[in-house]
Amino acid sequence: MISVEEALDRILAEIQPLNVVQAPLPEVQGLVLAQDIVAQEDIPPFANSAMDGFALQSKDSKPHNGKLPRLRITGSIAAGYVAEHAVEEGTTMRIMTGAPVPPGADSVIQVELTSTESSDSPWVEIQQEVAPGNNIRPAGEDMRRGQKVLTRGQTIGPWEIGILATLGYATVPVVRRPRVAILGTGDEVIDIHEPLQPGKIRNSNSYLLEAAVRAAGAEAHRLGVARDTVESLREKFTEAVQYDLILTSGGVSVGDFDLVKDIMQEQGKMNFWRINMRPGKPVAFGQIKGIPLLGLPGNPVSSAVTFELFGRPVIRKMSGHAQLLKPQIDVTVENGVQEKAMRRHYVRAHVVWHNGHFIARTTGNQGSHIMTSLLNANALVIVPEGGVTIAPGAQAKAMMLDWPEV
Ligand code: AMP
Ligand code: MG
Fold first, then answer.
1. CA-CA-CA-CA torsion sign (21, 34, 173, 327)
2. What are the residue ranges of helices labelled H in 98-249?
3. Measured from the CB, is residue 267 less than 6 Å from ligand 1?
4. What pLDDT, in 10s, does the model give residues 138-158?
5. What is the whole-number distance in angstroms between the Cα of residue 243 and the centre of ligand 1?
6. Which residues lie near ion ligand 2 (Cβ < 5 Å)?
7. DSSP assignment, residue 337?
8. Whether 380 contacts 355, CB under 8 Å
9. pLDDT value at residue 100
10. How far is the CA of 155 from the centre of ligand 1 (A)?
11. How far away, in angstroms, is 378 Cα from ligand 2 center?
12. Of 257, 234, 236, 231, which is closest to residue 184 (Cα–Cα)?
């Protein structure tokens, strides 16, 4: 049996980032940018008004002999249009937010600081002196042509998508999103649409894993459930090798019908099949026809926890991320962990920040079939190998599942 660290090292050593593709902008959220993005134009592309108001020559806003200036209105510029003439001394043009500043004008005064006798009056009174540049957003103020705006390797989120749209990237060079095949195994496992029969249970793993794969940023494809026969598994694996990663659940333990390892050996190579941890000792890793296969345990909690520990980092590495692992922090385990486990124990817990400390409270019965132990768990308290217990109020490390990778 190998340690969690060795398992992770051996898995990640076999995984490479996928190829780079040009993907449509609306589909790149969460993906890794594959090239630096350099602005090809100034943004904003032209000097424009920050306010609804009047474009004028700032010197014309100075009171004269104690009287407020009155300027002649020569036109109006809406956003999306360009002035047909210049603003000359003693004149002004109405201007809307986002409209290009007309030639001749060096400032904009907001409409609230002016007064007109009627909406169609050709004259406007300027009630406050304005400085050159007032309410003008210069061209290139946000991004300059030639400026590097985004860096290769960055994760693309909604804000980066906004920047890319601003710069006209209809498609973006990214590391391809991994496509993950999810395969259930077991004669007892039926689909969620079917009524329960004696001896049968519903396929929760495939659905949980589908969601977890998506949350990790990959595409998930459920391929159904293989029967506990070599033929059924072979058939499913024929389909599964068309994906970037194969995740199975069940069938990797030491039972008479645990055939996933056999098929892996028959059609590919097995790297290891047991890890010194709990939940989730039976985790197999290897490849089939060159496609990495992570065989997760059948017990739902084991399958969920081992996906977080091994599956998620695999997907992140394939996706080109540099940060692969969840952060570990020191927590006070309020209720302690009394249960003795010889293997490394990952105890589901809820961690909160309270009075300057991270406090962990474990989520009850930690059996690997107790799915409700996952509810409300945002962390795994890590109990070292060798039958260690944690007294109530003692310190331990916890892996924060709801924090970003570091
Ligand atoms: P196995 O490793 O195949 O012996 O499975 C271990 C346990 O997990 C057994 O109790 C199985 O019934 C259960 N199990 C296996 N696959 C699934 C699944 N897809 N959904 C829920 N439970 C499962
Ligand atoms: Mg089974």
1. positive
2. 158-166, 204-215, 230-240
3. no
4. 999 999 999 999 999 999 999
5. 23
6. 186, 250-251, 298
7. B
8. no
9. 98
10. 35
11. 28
12. 236
263 token code pair: 């098929």
Would the CB of 250 count as within 6 Å of ligand 1? yes
**Beta strand segments in 9-135, E:** 20-24, 37-38, 48-49, 53-56, 70-77, 91-95, 107-110, 114-115, 123-126
Ligand 2 center to residue 95 CA distance, Å? 72
Q: What is the DSSP letter of 177?
A: P
Angle (CA) 6 307 266, round 5°: 70
Nearest CA to ligand 1 atom 6: 298
What lies within 8 Å, CB to CB, of 236 at 6+ separation is 183, 223, 224, 226
Residue whose CA is at the smallest distance from ligand 1 atom 11: 298
Each residue of 337-365: pLDDT tens digit?
Answer: 999 999 999 999 999 999 999 999 999 99
Spatial distance between the Cα atoms of 217 and 323, rounded to a whole number of angstroms: 13
